[in-house]
Automatic annotation (TrEMBL), chain A:
Gene Ontology biological process terms, A to Z: chromatin organization; DNA repair; sporulation resulting in formation of a cellular spore
Protein family membership: Belongs to the ubiquitin-conjugating enzyme family.
Origin organism lineage: Eukaryota, Fungi, Dikarya, Ascomycota, Saccharomycotina
Active site: C85 (glycyl thioester intermediate)
Name by which UniProt lists this protein: Ubiquitin-conjugating enzyme E2 2
Enzyme Commission number: 2.3.2.23
One cellular component term from this protein's GO annotations in UniProt: nucleus
Organism in which the protein naturally occurs: Wickerhamomyces ciferrii (strain ATCC 14091 / BCRC 22168 / CBS 111 / JCM 3599 / NBRC 0793 / NRRL Y-1031 F-60-10)
UniProtKB/TrEMBL annotation, chain B:
A GO cellular component annotation in the UniProt record: anaphase-promoting complex
Name of the protein in question: Anaphase-promoting complex subunit 11
Originating species: Wickerhamomyces ciferrii (strain ATCC 14091 / BCRC 22168 / CBS 111 / JCM 3599 / NBRC 0793 / NRRL Y-1031 F-60-10)
Top-level taxon in the UniProt lineage: Eukaryota
Record GO terms (molecular function): cullin family protein binding; ubiquitin protein ligase activity; zinc ion binding
Length: 161, 106
């Protein structure tokens, strides 16, 4: 069924995401998207393959979607659940945003956290005072993101047997 | 003889006085076309211009302003959205009542 939200998402599909980001809706449901953000170069997140899910409802684009990391993250603004604390997804949402601009903001949040209201206090404290420790913890999540990729591929193999 | 009308093309054309490629920032549909809330092409779908000069399909901006979290802000510049119509300057709920009157008169 075509609704304003779905029609808008079909238009979002035609907007290329930024470099290092890929996103696409599920084949049978345009209201749920999966995305991968590659960790930006020259940051502790470099080369990580971080997966996210984006859930839209019929109020989109007047209400923001729910954006959540599926990959394990170590970041001041990401809760243990994977949910993000990002102003444009909450009180600074605008109906002019689209999938590409949301993912651009999430990507830039990776290396530019907002320390004033941390979702992960430990990550915020390490980020402020123990940069090398922080980088080490982030690198662990980067390696985990690769391992998750491998596991997925193995799952695929098993499916074929 | 019975004639089946397979296709009907209107001959009268009109367009808003804006570059034709310009799209509404909310629904991403051209201003020459109806917004994505309109089901039938040709539904009345006027433009609303704000004091800040940003413009949107009427239906799109109304839906946004009706949502509490919009705080009546323009989606583009986050200034308070006041629709401009000739001499009249309207803000907040006035936009909505102006828009309703527009609907009935139009
Ligand atoms: Zn529109
Ligand atoms: Zn409309
Ligand atoms: Zn504006």
């Amino acid at each position: 069924m075509s609704t304003p939200a779905r029609r808008r998402l079909m238009r979002d599909l035609k907007v290329d995401p930024p470099d290092g980001v890929s996103a696409s809706p599920l084949t049978d449901n345009v209201m749920i998207w999966n995305a991968i953000i590659i960790g930006p170069a020259d940051t502790p997140f470099e080369d990580g393959t971080f997966r996210l899910s984006i859930n839209f409802d019929e109020q989109y684009p007047n209400k923001p979607p729910q954006v959540k990391f599926l990959s394990t993250m170590f970041h001041p603004n990401v809760y243990a659940s994977g949910e993000l604390c990002l102003d444009i997804l909450q009180n600074r949402w605008s109906p002019t945003f689209d999938v590409a601009s949301i993912l651009t903001s999430v990507q830039s949040l990776l290396n530019d956290p907002n320390i004033s209201s941390p979702a992960n206090v430990e990550a915020a404290n390490l980020y402020k005072d123990h940069t090398s420790q922080y980088a080490k913890r982030v690198r662990e999540t980067v390696e985990k993101s690769w391992a998750d990729d491998l596991m997925d591929n193995e799952d695929d193999d098993e499916m074929e047997e | 003889m019975l004639v089946d009308i397979l296709e009907w093309n209107g001959v009268a054309t009109w367009s808003w006085d804006v570059p034709s490629e310009e799209v509404c920032g909310i629904c991403r549909v051209s201003f020459d076309a109806t917004c994505s809330n309109c089901k039938i092409p040709g539904d009345q779908c006027p433009l609303v211009v704000g004091e800040c000069t940003h413009r949107f399909h009427m239906h799109c901006i109304v839906k946004w302003l009706e949502i509490e979290t919009s705080k009546n802000l323009c989606p583009m510049c986050r200034r308070s959205f006041k629709a401009v119509h000739g001499e009249k300057q309207l803000g907040g709920s006035q936009v909505l009542s102006y828009i309703e009157s527009f609907n009935f008169e139009g």
